[in-house]
């Protein structure tokens, strides 16, 4: 799922997006991994990592054939619900600065950009959503 959802960014970034190389077996063992199905087909996934003072939204991935159907927003709404139940004061995430569509999507959802960082071969932007 993540590979298909993010592969179009490889030529944009000239690098492999983090969700494409993540160890999902470890993610499932150590964190919260959620999937959304449409019938029997998985159309979206969500990885959440709990920290003492926030919830890290590690990844939202929507199958390319299902993008634009509201599944990403459903996953984000679920993350917000989980964070409010905890409770933690904010959700944080990071994304590559070149993933303009992702950044714009999170900004429209109420996230704000907090700072930028060079991490290896990737220039990332950190974002936060105060609950």
From TrEMBL:
PROSITE patterns hit by this protein: GNAT (PS51186)
InterPro entries assigned: Acyl_CoA_acyltransferase, GNAT_dom
N-acetyltransferase domain location: 1-131
Record's protein name: GNAT family N-acetyltransferase
Source organism of this protein record: Roseibium porphyridii
């Amino acid at each position: 799922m993540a590979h298909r959802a993010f592969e179009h960014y490889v030529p944009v970034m000239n690098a492999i997006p983090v969700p494409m190389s993540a160890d999902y077996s470890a993610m499932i063992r150590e964190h919260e991994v959620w999937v959304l199905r449409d019938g029997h087909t998985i159309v979206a996934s969500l990885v959440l990592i709990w920290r003492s003072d926030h919830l890290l939204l590690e990844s939202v991935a929507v199958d390319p054939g299902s993008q634009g159907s509201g599944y990403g927003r459903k996953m984000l709404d679920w993350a917000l619900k989980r964070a409010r139940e905890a409770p933690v004061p904010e959700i944080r995430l990071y994304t590559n600065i070149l993933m303009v569509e992702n950044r714009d999507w999170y900004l429209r959802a109420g996230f704000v950009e907090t700072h930028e960082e060079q991490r290896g071969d990737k220039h990332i932007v950190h974002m936060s959503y105060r609950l």
